[in-house]
Design a protein that fits this description.
Elements lengths: L7 E10 L2 E11 L4 E5 L6 H8 L12 E4 L7 H7 E5 H5 L7 H6 L18 H13 L15 H13 L5 E5 L7 H16 L3 E6 L11 E6 L2 E7 H4 L2 H8 L3 E6 L2 E6 L6
Parallel strand pairs: 3-7, 3-8, 5-6, 6-7
Antiparallel strand pairs: 1-2, 1-4, 8-9, 10-11
Amino acid sequence: MTREVPLIEICNATLWRGSTCVFEGLDLVVQQHERVAIVGPNGSGKTTLLKAINRELYPVADPQSVFRILGRDAWNVWELRKQIGIVSQDLQQRYTQTTTALEVVVSGFHSSIGVHGTLADRVNDDQVDAARRTLEDLGIGALTETPLKHMSTGQQRRCILARALVHDPRTLILDEPTAGLDFSASFDYLDRVRRLANDGRNIIVVTHHLNEIPPEIDRVVLLRDGRIVADGNKQEVLTEEILSEVYETQVRVVEIDGYFLAYPGENAKT
């Protein structure tokens, strides 16, 4: 029987972001069908790791290091998007406010920000039909021709989710998925993520907020200063002792209905 290749396989990798060496000697393996949260304070390396997985950054070339996605060292970016969908607030903010929901989703086929100019000539009927179906599936089909500026932040985030889903990728990477959303939009969004996880997709959540980790995720990779300081079952990693050390403040943790929530300890910094 053929052994399934890992979704992400990183060994002894060095990653720079600009003039800063963020990771040195990084080792991380995520298997297909795993559901993982990558957690850590600001500056811990979460964004750099996400950009490297998304092929926006590349590791230092070294014959002794490995950085493979689905068993491959090199990817055409358009092929990769069919395998892995990325959803982030940063991506959402890169769209102009006059872009319509349909244009956002169709642009997912071209790994672009919008479908303006000559790129519009490459849009075909099949892509438009798929985009419309995806918007309907996410409950915002009525917003197909609506510009982003006339939507709530939650509706805009669902457009970005639709952009990622239009390829029907097996893996979704969600970067701080509820950032900027109010309670209603956050709860709705997390519910949709849970349904996607229960449909059998690989889910990777990148966050520093424990409440963004849906109950379906069982593994947590905890980063600090470009190092993996803990990696394992979330009950073993998301402890008050470990989180207090990593975040350098007293953290209390409670688990409710499969969600982990953090709140200040008695000696938390003010």
